[in-house]
Amino acid sequence: MVDRIIADEVFRLMPPQCIAALKSFYVRYGADAPRGLAGKENLIVRGGIEVEEFRALLVHEFGHVMDLGCFQGSPDAGETAFNDGGEIMYRNDPSIAFYEISWTASNVQKAGVKPEDFVTGYASWDVFEDFSESLAYYFFQRDAFIARAESNVSIAAKLRWIETYVFPGGRKIGSGQHQWTGEVPWDATKLPYAWNP
Hints:
Elements: H1 2-13, H2 16-19, E1 24-28, E2 36-38, E3 42-46, H3 51-70, E4 79-84, E5 87-90, H4 94-99, E6 103-105, E7 108-109, H5 127-149, H6 153-165, E8 174-176, E9 193-195
Parallel strand pairs: 1-3
Antiparallel strand pairs: 2-3, 4-5, 6-7, 8-9
Helix pairs in contact: 1-3, 3-5, 5-6
C-alpha cells in the first residue's frame, strides 16, 4: 500500500503528457525481482525496499518512459546517430538536445568529456542513463545540481534542458543532502534526501 501512495505522489509531479505515455506499471516483490526496468511505455520497480530508494528509483525509471515514450520526434525531421536498439531517434525529438551535450551517439561520448560532466558515474553509461540519472538528481539533489552547474558547462546545459522541457522555470522537489566535493557519486537513487514536494 505504501508503494502505491509513493507512486501516486511521484506521478503527480511529472508532466501530464508524459504520464499519458506510461501504459503499464508494475511493482514486483522478492529478491529475484529486478531493481528497475523501463522503456518507452513500461515501468517495473522492485517493491519492499526503503521508501527513499523506492521513490528515487521510480523517478529514475520514469525518466526512461519520459525520454523514450513522451519526448519523440518524427521521421520527416530526419534521423540522428541516436537510437534505442533498432528504434531510430529523429532530429525534432527534444531528448536529442540533451544527448548532444555529452554524446555523439547512444553510447559514444564526445571527445574531451570528463566524469564531472555527468551527475553520476552511472549517467556516463549511455544517453538513456544520463537522461534518467539527471532527472533523479534534479528531483532529489537540485541544490547540488545548481552548485555544480556554476563551474561546469555540461552540467549547466543539462540543468537548463530539464528546466526548459520537464519543469519550465525550475522546480524544487526534494531537499538533497549530497554536497558536491568534486567526487562524482555513482547512483542518484542512493543519495540521501528529504522529501518535501
